[in-house]
Amino acid sequence: MFQNIRILMCAVILAVTGSAAQAEDHPAQKLVVDAISSMLQVFKEDGDKLKSDPEYLQAKVDELIVPNLDFESMTRLAVSKFWRRADADQQKQLIDEFTTLLLNTYTGALTEYSGEEISFAPFKPEDREDRAVVSSTFGQSAGNDVPVLYKLRDKGGWSIYDIEVNDISLVTSYRSAFSSEIEKGGIDGLIEALKDRNGKS
Q: What is the pTM of this model?
């Protein structure tokens, strides 16, 4: 599972090989390709600095990646049926802490980058106009290539709300752990567990 999570995180922010024509097929596809291409360009120019300067790395992730991720939807899906039990303040805390957890994992994955590439398939429209799936393949230096799907929705602009690697969802991979924490200590118990994971306790 942890290997899949690492690939999930790398898939958001690492290298891309794909044609400009593929990127222009659909705005959702263009968003994913452009974001990852921009991060790759920074890696080519400042790879050593990205790995040695945490503040610079975080600044680039905040600039190039964060605006394309729908952290509220990710949190809702991960918390699942328990989301409605949380009041407005608890919901905000859940979003904040899950966002921090994801970004900490993203930036950690970047420091392990060793030249893997992602190739994108031509875009295929979904039944709903406000949904899109961008299909790609994550090339590993050792082992089989891994299929990666980026799921997006249009809420006045396209954003990524989930990523699947080998049919394993980034969002739902957290769901059972979140459910267990809530069963033990309620919504506040999950918030405290996330704070502890994020080093805030």
A: 0.82
